[in-house]
Amino acid sequence: MYCVEMRRKKLPKEAPGKYVEYHPRPYYSPDPLPPEPKIELPDETHDLVADAAYQIGRVDGISSTVDFAAVLYTTLIRIEAVESARIEGAEVDYQDVAAFHTKHEDSADAEAQSKDLREALNYEEALLYGIDHVGGGGEITLDLLKHLHEMLLDDVRNEGDVVGEFRDHMVRLNSPNPAKDPFIPPSASSLDDLMSSLVEYVGMNGEYHPLVDAAIIHYFFETVHPFSDGNGRLGRLVIILYLVDQGYIESPYIYPSAYFNRNKVEYVEKMRAVSEQGEWVEWIDFFLEALRSQAEESYDRTWALKELQSKYETDYAGNTSTDRFARKLLEVPYFTANDIVRELDVSRGTAYNVIDNLEDAGLIEEVTGAEWGQEYKAVEVFDVFE
Question: Is the same domain home to 37 and 67?
Answer without folding.
Answer: yes
